[in-house]
Amino acid sequence: xxxxxxxxxxxxxxxxxxxxxxxxxxxxxxxxxxxxxxxxxxxxxxxxxxxxxxxxxxxxxxxxxxxxxxxxxxxxxxxxxxxxxxxxxxxxxxxxxxxxxxxxxxxxxxxxxxxxxxxxxxxxxxxxxxxxxxxxxxxxxxxxxxxxxxxxxxxxxxxxxxxxxxxxxxxxxxxxxxxxxxxxxxxxxxxxxxxxxxxxxxxxxxxxxxxxxxxxxxxxxxxxxxxxxxxxxxxxxxxxxxxxxxxxxxxxxxxxxxxxxxxxxxxxxxxxxxxxxxxxxxxxxxxxxxxxxxxxxxxxxxxxxxxxxxxxxxxxxxxxxxx
Amino acid sequence: xxxxxxxxxxxxxxxxxxxxxxxxxxxxxxxxxxxxxxxxxxxxxxxxxxxxxxxxxxxxxxxxxxxxxxxxxxxxxxxxxxxxxxxxxxxxxxxxxxxxxxxxxxxxxxxxxxxxxxxxxxxxxxxxxxxxxxxxxxxxxxxxxxxxxxxxxxxxxxxxxxxxxxxxxxxxxxxxxxxxxxxxxxxxxxxxxxxxxxxxxxxxxxxxxxxxxxxxxxxxxxxxxxxxxxxxxxxxxxxxxxxxxxxxxxxxxxxxxxxxxxxxxxxxxxxxxxxxxxxxxxxxxxxxxxxxxxxxxxxxxxxxxxxxxxxxxxxxxxxxxxx
Lengths: 323, 323
Hints:
Organism (chains A, B): Lachnellula occidentalis
GO molecular function, one term (chains A, B): 8-oxo-dGDP phosphatase activity
CATH superfamily of the largest domain in chain A: Nucleoside Triphosphate Pyrophosphohydrolase
Pfam family, one (chains A, B): NUDIX
CATH class of the largest domain in chain A: Alpha Beta
CATH architecture of the largest domain in chain A: Alpha-Beta Complex
Number of domains of chain A: 2
Strand content of chain A: 15-25%
Radius of gyration of chain A: 21 Å
Structural class of chain A: alpha+beta
Number of helices of chain A: 9
Oligomer: homodimer
Protein name (chains A, B): Nudix hydrolase domain-containing protein
Low-confidence stretches of chain A: 146-151
Domain Nudix hydrolase (chains A, B): 140-286
Order of helices and strands of chain A: HEEHEEHEEHEEEHHEEEHHH
């Protein structure tokens, strides 16, 4: 069977798949026009976008005002906004309204940029078009065979394969360690926690040597096979960390989310990317890693500036309380 | 005299100063509506935006079609587009039409993304709103006093002060090495050349150890004091490189663009940034360096995602010939 080799831009495009408002085309359709805009109490800044189909299906409670004329959803002033979300999502789970809720509860995700802390369940965030946050840690070593001195060997990267039973991206390759940043947790604490849970890495090593190296942002148009709701507006932020380890450090699975870990050379990772074997957003984290480490350069990659811009899309929401 | 300490977002905002088309505000004025769009022969993709004042002042030749009704400027099919630009810009220099041309010729800059190679003079690029490209190399060392082992000392960065006689940003601090990427030259060759010319760095060291680490993109609204034309649309791409050197490597000026070099600690650089001492785009390169090296983290910087997105703005033009 012939398979088409994916370019890095193809891989980024699969993740950052929501259309841009292109100023070069004055006749473009505004891709935001279809949505209902989501507002928090006493805050004129939008925090999410909902599809009309989602608005129609949602078992709204009296804690939310739905305005069909102006296409807005506003959370009413209430004692705690988080409780209002919980109430609403409990209803949706009970009624089995949305397949992506999987009929179960998940971790609390904060609405970033909110002036008063508010959170909702992780699985529900894309229904509201609210920003989801993840943290990814890429673990690599240079100390292997073929090195010309300490820290100068050929780079190898620890790459896990996801378990077959996972809801999303079963059997795909992934970033060494990745997880959702839950409410009240910072990105660094998230990778420290996940590095132990997913890769059996020593907490002390991660705390001492994991380095914050940037963040990616993109907007997915959730239309991929396997997604239960089509056309959702799903903005995501991924905080990226690198961890260079000694050659004797080994990543190994310790929960049932990872099938096994491989120590892969750069060429092996490149081929796996081209074959589309990585989870969509983890492919982007790997491309960003390659760019930051000089593996992918502007001389070799004609789409270099476009890739960099698409990996760092400006989200149409405030990401801090005073923006 | 009281001085206001600048945040990292303030510094990025000073560079990426052209307004965004904000989808959250349906009543926003389209910031692109005022411009004339620039087209190359047989290519429907826009490559630049010109102010009406620039269009009115430009001594157009018959090689360009100016359409006031549709607000377009089109380079006519011609034997060589570069010659047509040269002809036009020669006219403008002779007539002293634009102050920013400084009455003199500069290096050829390519129109990136063009299907047939075409270049125009560096100083003229912002008049047409065409993408300018620069390459910046940050040279640093970790081998100094206070280290806990090889490669683990306190990070220090080589920072030059620009000469007082320069047209732009006289007396400001700057990236270790920076220059415009001229037509026919790659970003890496540009930094190799400039590293010798500006910082007396050994070509072999730069070729061996300078590492490509990404690119920044932004759109300046050229309105700063010292700019001779107001309100120009100036998109820029900066290719970034890092070079870690041994403690005995010294950067020293060898042309008249640099006054002197300092070896500055991270805290010193931070304070100089806060005081606004850096050239506008070099401040952004320094902030990106701090983010990639874990000096600025999401835990400490509330505007982290916004800064990352603004440093990697998607430009409204193709950056490769097949986009």
